[in-house]
C-alpha cells in the first residue's frame, strides 16, 4: 500500500500488520546447497508438524523451538515443504517494520549481511495520470527492502534447523487420518510422499500447523473450505538486467483492465507483474509471452521504465490469486497460518510480513496445547477475523481511489460490489 501526497489512500495496516510486500507465490528453480540425507530422513512421530516451508511455516518452527515452553524443553518439530530448496518465489519487497519481526526470530544480523538492497520508496500512478511518491527517508526503522528471495528463504530455513527443527524438502502432504484426542497424544496421522516416490509415508503428530498457502490443503482435509471474496489472475516475468538503469523505487500503475507492478531485485534481476481477471485478458495466460509484453508496453508509467532496460533470460509464470479467509482458523490441536489462514489481494502488500507475524503467534498456541489449555477458538482466531474485516474495508477503499475506469468491468466489480463469498 502506498501513501503519498498525491495518493491519499489509507494504509492497509492493523496493530500487527504494517507490511508492504506482495504475497508469496512459488516459481522458477534455483538451488542452494543442502544435505539431502538429512532433510529426507523422517521419523515416525513428531510433537508438531508444519505443512509448508514458506515464511509463515519457517517462522512458526523457529518460534516454537525458541519459545519458553516451561517443562516442555525438547518439542520435536517437522517442516514439510513440497518444493526443493532454493525455489524463487514472488514476494520480493519488505517494509521497514520487517526488522522488528526478524529480531524476534533471531535473524536480523544475518538479514543485514545478506545480499538485500534498501528501497527508497514507491512511485505509483493510481487515481490520477501522474506519479505520486512515498519515501521511507523519515521512517525511524529505515528503508524498505528489495529481497534476494532465495537468500531470505535460505536464512529462515537455516535458522529453523539451527533451532532444532527438521525440514524435509520435495515432500508433499497428500492426506490425513484423525483419531480421537483421547485415544492418542498423536491425534493426526499424516500421509506424505517424497520426491518421485509415490509410496506414501505415515507420520503421526500431536499438533499440525497448516502453512500450505492460499489453498489451505490441510484445512480442506478437515472439510474446511476457504471463503473467497475475490479471484484475480497474475502473470509474472522474471528477467536478468543486461544493461540500463532502472528506478530503485517500486513502481505501481493502475490500468483500464487491472494494474501492473515492477521492481528491481538484487543480483541484476527485475520482476514485472500484470494483475487482472482471467476473463478480461485471456491472452496473458501462461504460454503467450507476447501478450504479456504487448500489455506491458501499453502502460504509461511502468512500460516506459521497462524500455530503459535491456533484459535477458526472461521466464514467465501465471497464477490465480485469492482474497479469502478460512471460516475455522484453528482447532484444539491445529491452526492455520499465513496465506492458508487469510489470503489477501496483493495490492494490500502484506504477504511476507503477515506470514512471519502468524508464525510468531504459533508458539503460544502450541504452548497452550502442550499444557492441555488449548481451545477450539482462541484470541488468535478473533484477531485474524478482525484483521480480515479491516483488510476488506481497506481493499474497497484502495480500489475506489481509481475512478478513471469506474465503468470498466474490473474496477466496477471492486469498487462497489460486496464480498463474493465463494468457496475455494
Automatic annotation (TrEMBL):
<feature type="domain" description="FAD-binding">
    <location>
        <begin position="46"/>
        <end position="370"/>
    </location>
</feature>
<protein>
    <recommendedName>
        <fullName>FAD-binding domain-containing protein</fullName>
    </recommendedName>
</protein>
<dbReference type="InterPro" id="IPR050816">
    <property type="entry name" value="Flavin-dep_Halogenase_NPB"/>
</dbReference>
<dbReference type="Pfam" id="PF01494">
    <property type="entry name" value="FAD_binding_3"/>
</dbReference>
<dbReference type="GO" id="GO:0071949">
    <property type="term" value="F:FAD binding"/>
</dbReference>
<dbReference type="InterPro" id="IPR002938">
    <property type="entry name" value="FAD-bd"/>
</dbReference>
<dbReference type="InterPro" id="IPR036188">
    <property type="entry name" value="FAD/NAD-bd_sf"/>
</dbReference>
Amino acid at each position: 500500500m502506498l501513501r503519498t501526497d498525491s495518493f491519499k489512500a489509507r494504509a492497509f495496516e492493523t496493530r500487527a500488520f504494517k507490511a508492504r510486500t506482495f504475497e508469496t507465490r512459488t516459481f522458477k528453480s534455483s538451488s542452494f546447497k543442502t544435505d539431502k540425507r538429512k532433510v529426507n530422513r523422517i521419523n515416525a512421530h513428531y510433537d508438531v508438524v508444519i505443512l509448508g516451508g514458506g515464511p509463515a511455516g519457517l517462522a512458526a518452527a523457529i518460534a516454537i523451538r525458541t519459545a519458553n515452553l516451561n517443562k516442555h524443553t525438547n518439542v520435536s518439530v517437522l517442516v514439510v515443504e513440497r518444493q526443493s530448496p532454493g525455489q524463487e518465489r514472488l514476494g520480493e519487497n519488505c517494509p521497514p517494520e520487517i526488522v522488528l519481526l526478524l529480531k524476534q526470530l533471531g535473524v536480523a544480523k544475518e538479514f543485514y549481511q545478506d545480499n538485500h538492497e534498501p528501497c527508497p520508496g514507491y512511485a505509483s500512478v493510481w487515481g490520477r495520470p501522474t506519479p505520486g511518491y512515498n519515501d521511507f527517508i523519515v521512517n525511524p526503522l529505515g528503508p524498505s527492502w528489495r529481497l534476494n528471495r532465495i537468500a531470505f528463504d535460505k536464512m529462515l530455513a537455516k535458522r529453523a534447523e539451527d533451532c532444532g527443527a527438521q525440514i524435509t524438502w520435495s515432500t508433499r502432504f497428500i492426506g490425513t487420518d484423525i483419531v480421537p484426542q483421547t485415544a492418542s497424544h498423536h491425534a493426526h496421522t499424516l500421509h506424505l510422499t517424497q520426491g518421485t516416490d509415490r509410496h506414501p509415508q505415515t507420520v503421526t503428530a500431536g499438533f499440525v500447523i497448516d502453512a500450505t498457502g492460499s489453498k489451505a490443503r490441510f484445512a480442506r482435509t478437515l472439510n474446511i473450505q476457504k471463503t473467497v471474496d475475490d479471484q484475480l489472475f497474475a502473470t509474472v516475468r522474471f528477467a536478468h538486467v543486461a544493461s540500463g538503469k532502472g528506478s530503485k523505487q517500486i513502481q505501481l500503475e493502475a490500468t483500464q483492465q487491472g494494474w501492473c507492478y515492477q521492481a528491481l531485485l538484487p543480483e541484476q534481476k527485475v520482476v514485472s507483474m500484470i494483475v487482472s481477471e482471467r476473463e478480461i485478458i485471456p491472452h496473458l495466460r501462461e504460454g503467450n509471452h507476447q501478450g504479456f509484453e504487448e500489455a506491458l508496453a501499453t502502460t504509461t508509467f511502468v512500460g516506459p521504465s521497462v524500455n530503459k532496460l535491456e533484459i535477458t533470460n526472461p521466464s514467465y509464470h501465471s497464477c490465480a490469486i485469492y482474497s479469502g479467509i478460512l471460516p475455522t482458523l484453528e482447532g484444539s490441536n491445529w491452526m492455520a497460518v499465513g496465506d492458508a489462514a487469510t489470503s489477501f489481494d496483493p495490492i494490500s502488500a502484506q504477504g511476507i510480513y503477515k506470514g512471519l507475524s502468524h508464525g510468531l503467534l504459533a508458539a503460544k498456541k502450541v504452548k497452550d496445547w502442550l499444557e492441555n489449555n488449548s481451545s477450539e477458538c482462541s484470541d488468535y482466531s478473533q484477531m485474524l477475523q478482525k484483521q480480515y474485516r479491516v483488510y476488506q474495508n481497506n481493499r474497497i477503499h484502495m480500489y475506489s481511489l481509481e475512478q478513471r475506469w469506474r465503468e470498466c468491468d474490473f474496477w466496477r466489480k471492486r469498487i462497489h460490489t460486496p464480498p463474493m463469498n465463494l468457496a475455494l
